[in-house]
Give the backbone structure.
Amino acid sequence: MSTLRVDNLNARTGTKITIPTGTTLYAPGAIIQRQVGFSNTQFTLQTTTMSNVITATITPNYAASRIWLTASVNVGKRSTGELQFSHRFLRDGNPVTQQLSSARNGSTGVYDAFRCTGTADAAYHNHHIYYAYDEPNTTSTVTYTFQVAAPDAGYQVIYFNYGNHTYTTLIAEEMGK
């Protein structure tokens, strides 16, 4: 392998430097690729069992890469009372351990992150964003899933993408490490 040492790169003509097809430029800390799961379909959940909200699939270019996960979830309620749920990210069905919130009641891989305490408010909807990162140590395709569940059966129905005019996304970004 050859090493090219330079202080600056500039395009010979114009302002664009092209990396040939089939070649990847590796830059630690830079985003190598981004894959997005998207849904604007309204659906509801009322369960204490972790249930899938959205998925995104990514095939890392490098085994040493870190995958940064961002779930942007449009969620709410349509009646009075408290709304609360816990969440987690999965990689190929297994909890991602690098959640960026704290574990609920010692539960492995289950995290509190949403609580609407305005019990008199019958119509609360908002976008909420959740983060995690993972180091899958593979160049094989992986599927990430964002899940939620109510902490107990007494909580009301959780609405996602109410009115089909809002959206929920799961973004998986491969970052050089």
Summary: The longest strand covers residues 66-77. The chain has no helices and twelve strands. The chain has one domain: 31-175.
